[in-house]
Each structure stands twice: as structure tokens, then as C-alpha cells.
# Entry
Amino acid sequence: MSSVNKRNKLGQIVDTIFDDVRNNAVGSAVISCVRLARLTSDYHSLAFFVFLQESTHEEAHRTIQNEIGHLAKDFIKYVTETAHDRSLSIFKILDSEADENFTRGNLLYVRANHIDNEIQSIDMTIDSLTVPNGIGEFDTAMFYKENAGPRFIFIRKRGILLRIRSNILTACHNYASQIERSLQADTTAIEMLGSTVQRVTTFLLEHAPTASPMYLAAFSYLEANTSEGNAASVLQIRRLLKETADAISPPNSMNGLSEDKYLNRLAYFVEKKLSGPVKTFSLEAKTIEELLRHTNSNASKGVHSNMSIAEAKRVLFLATFLLDFIVEVHETDCTTGRTFTNTS
# Structure
């Protein structure tokens, strides 16, 4: 599933949960939260909502094992115990609910999608224990004497179930809201990164046209999400840095900036741009050079060893940041009336 499709799917599930909460559809809301946690690999929330979903703790443990059984045993144990304790807090009898029939701290455990049926069944029982119309005073008194106690117990139980349902719906709403905020943050980050990538691409097309295809290829190789693709991506970054240096700061034997010292040439380009009368940047050329060497070093590792998708992304994002900084240096240089020329 692509990242765009995944975000759309998550958004649809979040909307479904909000609708379920509005309609008091507690069973459906919990099932959707399980799906949401599964898609986001949120194992703690997954285990918690499974405990709310399953009818017994044994069944919940089996479901959790099926979901996260591939993880370390100690982690599974920790996640399961934490989720179990969290779920118990929902089903515990509160001080305000306790009496001779419902002991404080005891559990009234009920599966989420059974709560509404339980409440409906209790409502019918309460109705059956209500004094019927049209009977005499003696019969009314006898009926009340026999049924008032049980009827009160069912009324108390119904109130506890309504509170439990409300707590579960609140947990579902809070979790959906959490994911919604995360999706909004992701969208903002994607938009910011997209505009940065576009700015870097435009700069490369204009000033280092041979480097532009390498930059776009680095993104394409990551889509495969394989060790080979990750290595190919970072290799493109290594070549990209050299091509960019060749274009904006060509080799110059006079100052010792030979062809193989492309990192020095990029740092020299930035240093020359920052040495003018306008100093608006917090990064020094030395810092840029260190970051360039760090990026190049990581890119070189990808040629000779397996590289994870996370490592490859870091190299690509760091290269994007450095190139965007070079673009910013160039743009500020242009707005101050200074000419963008090779610094050799």
C-alpha cells in the first residue's frame, strides 16, 4: 500500500470512528480502532482495543499473539500486560456505583459489541418488573415487594453499563483524534518537504542539469523498499553531490580544489557566498562541509553494504536539506543584487 493510499485509508477509518461515536455504536467503533492500530503498527493500542473487543481474556491473548507474535517475547508480554491493566480500569466498579450488590473494585466485564444488547435486555427486564396498570392495591404492594429489589439491581447494572459504554466510546474518540492530528502533521510535513524538493529540483534543472535526474532517481529507488534499491538511492546522492559541485564550483587547481575534492568545492561555494556584506544564515560554511562529509560517508556505505530504508531516507533528506540551503544562499545572493557565478 502506497503512503498516499495508506493515509487515505486511515482517514476513512477515523471518519468511521467519529460516526460510530456519534451514534453510540460502541462495538463498531472498537473494531475500527483495532484496524487503525493495526495499520499504524501501534501495538499498545492494538492490544488495548483487542481486550475491549474479545469476550474473554483468553481469546484476547490469542488474538494479540496472532497480531504481534513475530515480535520479541518480552515486548509482547509488556504490551499485553499494559493493555490488560488499562482495559480493567474501564470495567471496574467505581466508588459511586458500589453497594451490597456491586462491590467496589470488582469487574463488570462485557464485550464491547455486546453492551447494547445487554442494555436492551436489562431494559426489557426492568419493564417486566414494573408494576402493571389496572391491578388492585394489595396486588400492587405484593408485586412491588417481590420485584423492587431485583428491579433496583438491574437499574444499577444498566447505569454501570452506560458508563462503561461511554468510557469505551471516549477512548475510541480520543484515539481517532490522535491519529487525525498525526495525519494532519504528516500532511503538513509532506507539503513542506514537497515544496523543498520542488525548489531543489528547479535549481538543479537550471544550474546543474546533469544532477537533476540523479536527484529524482534517488526518490524513485526508495519506492522499491529493498536493500538494493536503498543502496542505489544513496549512490545517486553521492554522484549528485559531485555533479552539483562540478556545475556551481568547478575544479580549480589554483586554489587546490581539484576534481576529486567536490565536497570542499561545495563548501567553498557556500563560504564565498556567505563572505559578502549580507549575513543572514545561521549555518557556517564549516558546518555545511561537515554535514556534506557525513552525507557522503553514509552514501558511500550504501555501495558496499546493506542499507535500511530508514538510513537511505536520512541520507536523502539530509542531502535535500543541504541542497536547499545552497539554493537559499543563491536566492539571497540574487535578491541583494550580487551575480550568481562560478566561484572558481
About this structure: The mean pLDDT is 81. The two ends are 48 Å apart (CA to CA). The chain has three domains: 3-94+164-188, 112-162, 208-335.
